[in-house]
Amino acid sequence: MVGLPSEAITVPTTAATRRVLVAGVGYTNLRDLSFGPHLVERLRSGVWPPGVDVEDLSAGAIHVLHALQASPPYAAAILVAGIRRGDPPGTVRRSHWMHPPRPTEEVQERIGEALTGIISLDTLLTVLDHFGALPDDTLVIEVEPRDEGWGAELSPPVEAAVSQVDRFVREAVAEALA
Hints:
This protein is α/β, with parallel strands linked by helices. It has a domain of 114 residues. It has six helices and five strands, in the order βαβαββααβαα.
């Protein structure tokens, strides 16, 4: 448990239990850019095996870094967000984080973004990876947004991707715990 929102689910673990972090990242109430927090809300309504923490990591990269450094390490992480990359709306992308080295200037720029309140999956990945807070086994799932305006609902093509991403997350958790 990284100790972020007070409503986060606490799952007791044992020494033999692998810890897996399932996390959403994004702004609340920015339609499709809220995909990560939206999915976390959905996933929290389910039952998860011991050792699986479902968290909203939208509190900012520096806060998340400190919380992860203060908790026992995770064996695996699955991070989900709505991210514009130029694909058709609702496109789901999955990739294993390759822990690429980043120039110091880029890390400093991302830390600056985090300190000014920017919530971004790219910023979070860069900051956490630079400080060694990400497990080697990190899966990133992104959904291409259509609508980025103010509002709580996802657009139809992004809403259609929710069940696919839910399935991908559950498969990744099962694999990480195997």
